[in-house]
Amino acid sequence: MITLKSPWQYCVGVCLRKVSWAIALLLAGCAQMPLSPVRSLDALADAGFVPAPASPVVKSLLRQAGEAPAINIYLEGDGAPWFLRMLPPRDPTPLQPVAARLALGDSAALVGYVGRPCQFLESVLLRDCSRSLWTNERFGDSAIALTRAAIDGLLSGLPPGRRLNLIGFSGGGTLALLVAAGRADVDCVVTLASPLDIDAWSDMNGVGRLAGSRNPARPNAALSRLRQTHVYGAADRIVPVAAVGRYHNFSGDSQVKVFAGNRGHGDWEKFWPAIRDSTCLNRSPSNAAQAVPADRIAAEDRHVVTRPEVLHE
After folding, report:
1. CA neighbor of 281 nearest in space, from 225, 216, 227
2. Which terminus of the chain is more exposed, N or C, with fewer CB under 10 A?
3. Interior CA angle at 196 toward 190 and 199, to 5°?
4. Cα torsion at 209, 214, 220, 222 (round to 10°)?
5. Could you tell me whether strands 70-75 and 309-311 are parallel, antiparallel, or unpaired per DSSP bridges?
């Protein structure tokens, strides 16, 4: 005998199955986490990275293998995922620190790494870290100031005059643009799978906009003179190329690229060496062009977003 379920019972069953799968995935991710968040940075320490001056709530490390006119600084992504896109994690430390791994593979003489506020902290410090720094205000004034101070700490032990190349993964790229907008020593910004328009990204994901955060898509004269390369994965459903949104702050030396070999949002480490050579990191600052004139921005923006360069493995 077949028992028919009411629509209400059917919906409850589907929802429970989805929640069960989500809990299983969450537990699987937790099982991969190190015993202590601080241990996630052990690989950097083993490779010669040493702590640099920064706020107690920001982890910043530097590797100096020689002299160079510029330093490559990697900014970490947003970190641990939200549960069902509704509940923020209690600890924003990333399960897979993509930017840290990219920094490990960088052979430049000067390489820096900056974690996002409140990541990689022991429980005592984490309790005193405002949750807003990894939720609605993760691109706000406090997060920007903490990151800027960490970058200054990286530079404090180096001779003056060093230029900066900022490389950010996911939200780290968004933050890199916001930091660069307030500095005069940045030569190049490279973003990997980063929302350039946080309002457009929030809308496409069906989540609330980030009240208290700054949006790089707002007009900014400093960014419109900056060399920049923005790379997206063709299969990335979390931050697709559409997350460029209404970002208009392109200089004449700006590119948006879609990498066909990327399999997902965090799948960058093995492809980074090949991608790096096609970014502004591999071009002389003397080749930087003027900002795109205001009367050409709309057309230029349409060209960049609808016809990005496609990179292959």
Report:
1. 227
2. N
3. 160
4. -140
5. unpaired
CATH class label, 38-311 = alpha beta
Beta strands in the chain (DSSP E): 50-51, 60-64, 70-75, 110-114, 163-169, 186-192, 227-233, 254-259, 309-311
Angstrom distance (rounded) from CA 24 to CA 83: 11
Residues 305, 241: contact at Cβ < 8 Å? yes
**Bridge partners of 270?**
none
Angle at 92 between CA 75 and CA 149, to 5 degrees: 40
Q: How far is CA 269 from CA 106, 210, 246, 263, in A?
A: 11, 28, 28, 11
Stated length of the chain: 313
Q: What is the pLDDT along the chain (313 residues), one digit of tens a residue?
A: 444 445 455 444 444 444 444 443 343 344 344 334 455 689 999 999 999 999 999 999 999 999 999 999 999 999 887 776 668 899 999 988 999 999 999 999 999 999 999 999 999 999 999 999 999 999 999 999 999 999 999 999 999 999 999 999 999 999 999 999 999 999 999 999 999 999 999 999 888 999 999 999 999 999 999 999 999 998 899 999 999 999 999 999 999 999 886 667 777 888 898 889 899 998 766 544 444 433 333 333 333 443 556 655 5
| CA atoms within a 13 Å half-sphere pointing along the CA-CB vector of 214 | 19
Which amino acid, 177?
L
Domain ranges for the chain: 38-311
The amino acid sitting at 17 is R
* Six-digit token string for 238: 């979390």
Q: What are phi and psi of 130, to 5 degrees?
A: -65, 125
